[in-house]
Amino acid sequence: MQENTPRYLTLDRHLRTVFGEKVQKIPLDAGSTCPNRDGTLSFGGCTFCNAEGSGPGTGLGSLRTQWDRWRARYAAMPRMKSTRLFLGYIQSFTNTYGPASRLASMLRELSALPGLVGACIGTRPDCLDEEKMALMADCPWPEFWLEIGVQSFNNATLARINRGHTAKDAENALILAARFRVKTCVHLTAARPGESGEDFLSSVRRLSALPVSGVKLHNLYVPKGCAMEKDRLQGSLPLLEQEQYAALAARALALVPPSVVIHRLCADPAPGELIAPAWAAQKRQTLDLLDAVLRYNNWTQGCLRQDR
User: Fold this and answer.
1) Into which CATH architecture does domain 11-297 fall?
2) Looking at the whole model, is its pTM more than 0.85?
3) For the chain, which residues make up each domain, given as ranges?
4) For residue 200, which of 23, 190, 235, 307 is within the disulfide window of CB 3.0 to 4.6 Å?
């Protein structure tokens, strides 16, 4: 294989195939909450979640206000000023939680954003039903992604991180989305507390057997204010080294079907929130190490799947 041959299907490459040009994702905050924070399931939230609900903390204002702010910022960047097309990513907390009417209102507000050609909606697997899925299935954009935080298919791990749902909940959500032809992007994190690398790869294998269109792989990092921060400061939370994560993520990629779009391969901490590990802020270096592992082993996405 030549060095410039793509070894996995990135979101950027997928979007360029669909639209014929660069598409930029814009993070948005819809003011959602989460059943794992408001007392429905828990008041504590997931042990890894930051104060913004694992979002970037985009600030106050309507979706239109946030949208215009981000577009103006990109227009001022020389490398971005010619970008015309955008995806709206409603990221923080659980955006399908609550009545279907709230989701419908959110989708209508998205539809009015200038330059928007698609959307990504972040949620949990236990906050979905047929009515909400039908609303998302009717979205008019060329690209729509339902991003589901699964984190692990190991029920013991899900309990340890206070996730509040089971692996079966995740499977049911993915099957329901597939029935409505809604594309799903699943989030998985390597080396959760109590898990080995092989445990993580077992989750990847289980995910790969389900009707999934996209995946985000994350390295575990500790943001300020989350429940894991105390464990880390006390020395009771081991974290992967950068080289270990790169090797594990590369092997995971080799287990993911080639048709699945890779939305992300490492976590992206917000400025000022990172407690540990320090290398989590070195995204480019992590991706370079991962690419080096793929080249060394001559691996491509899906090459180690048993059903090839």
Assistant:
1) Alpha-Beta Barrel (3.20)
2) yes
3) 11-297
4) 190
